[in-house]
Amino acid sequence: MLKEAGYKITPQRLAVIEYLKKGPGHFTANDVYKEIKKTIPTITLATVYNILKAFADVRCINSFDVDGTTWFENEVELHANLMCKVCGNIVDVKIDKGKLLDLLRENSDADFENITLFVRGVCPDCKAKEKQEMASTRPIVH
Question: Name one GO biological process term (predicted).
Answer without folding.
Answer: negative regulation of DNA-templated transcription
